[in-house]
Amino acid sequence: MSYLLTIVLLLSLSVITYQDFKERQVHWILFPLAFFLSILNSIQQVSADKLLLNTGSNAILIVILFLILFLYAKIRFKGRKGLWQLIGLGDLLFFVVASVNFAILNFIAFSIGSLFLSLIISLLYRHKTIPLAGIQACCLFLLLSLQYSFEFNLFNEYWIYQWI
């Protein structure tokens, strides 16, 4: 069951990546599907209590991040552009999907890394829009694949504590 669940989760992440890169929009059903599969996948690694605590912490971080982005848009564009003209709803929904897959420090590292990769891709290809959800889905796909290949846990933050 665990392998089948992982395969379906990886497949949904692949479709999100493909659709966002190709069409710059993702079918809405993929986000709840990936979220539900991520919950099931994460419960196999940590207790429900720890998962709820990590997801709640990550959700607070997402709210803070989007409040800062909202304030930036208001100040930078003097009200001419709203938040949803800068970032798509799918991008926000993917942040929610990703929040279920990590402990808080690993989520911060994932967010910084995937946003940095998005910046590099946007500078290289100079499109009007950036497939942020697709890039993050690709990063999560790679991390989950590595997790199952090398049997490490995305809820284990020990590697970060070694660097601090």
Automatic annotation (TrEMBL):
Keywords: Membrane, Transmembrane, Transmembrane helix. The chain crosses the membrane at residues 27-44, 51-72, 92-125, 132-150. This is Prepilin type IV endopeptidase peptidase domain-containing protein. It comes from Marinifilum breve.
